[in-house]
Amino acid sequence: MRSRAAAYPLLAALAWGAMFPILATALTRVDPLNLTTARYLFATVILVGILLIREGSAALRLGGRGVEVVVLGVVGFAGFNLLTNLALEHAAPQQISLFVATTPIITQLVRWARDGVRPKPLLLALSLVALLGVGLVITRGSLAGLGQFGLGGLMMIGAVLGWAVYTHGATRFGGWSPLRFTTLTALAGTAAMLAASIGADAVGWQHAPSAADLVAVTPQLAYAVLVAAVVAVLAWNTGVQRLGAANAALFMNLVPVTTFIVQIARGYRPERIELIGAAITIAALVAANLAARTRPRPSSPTRPTAVTDPVAVVDPVAVAAR
Q1: Is 140 left (phi over 0), alpha (psi -120 to 50) or beta?
Q2: Total Cβ atoms within 10 A of residue 110
Q3: CB 159 within 8 A of CB 45
Q4: C-alpha triplet 232, 236, 238: angle, nearest 5°
Q5: If you compute the radius of gyration of the chain from its CA atoms, what whole number of angstroms results?
Q6: In the chain, which stretches have pLDDT less than 50?
Q7: Is 301 helix (H, G, I), strand (E, B) or coil?
Q8: pTM beyond 0.90
């Protein structure tokens, strides 16, 4: 059922929404590039271990798609995460998360540019409505501050574009399980992050964290690795495979709303216009999901795929918990 499939991108969006404030606190002790690299070094080790247990060593083979995997891993994992952490040094978490809400529109434009598939008017309209709601949440009804994001905003535009390309690319790997696609692209992205961190440390752009620094940010790293990197990315790629890139991307509108809620829990007090914006966003997402459910589902493929464990496709949370 599409309603059940929608739980996967929903889980990812909620996890990533909480990630921005959490990572912002860690950046006071660890530089952005090193924090991102440490996060995905741990996450990739976990993903590789799960993949070997669930699908065997054959799943680590690229099957002649090495270039595509590397490109998607670099622009998706490395590009999005590195630029996001760098942007958090220049703007508040709720401001940065606003840009994530542009993912549905950008994903549809990427699909249009690469595949010639014109965005469906209903999905595009609901994306814009949800984005309007997010704008009200973050700006409290005033757009005056949107032009003041500066360098952080430019970095987030690049980050979202990279994630949109990654999301669209995931739909081309229907013969792979989400676990396999996530792991192999994470390996490529992590290698790029590691190279960037080593280079930045070597030229003095940042400094390698001490053991004390890593211990100090252990709680943030634990969340960023286990929840935001392993479970959330597996859930996201499962949702993309089952719903399609355009439908799954709609859930990214909940990322800034979640960030906003986390900030409230930390003491921020919202205005009425912000609550109205949150309601608009949720309503638009529900409408998009109902509209998607009215379309007939494609017939199930009869030929076998590389998946050896159905749980790895339909329940990544269970896989990560094993």
Answers
A1: left
A2: 21
A3: no
A4: 120
A5: 19
A6: 1, 296, 299-322
A7: coil
A8: no
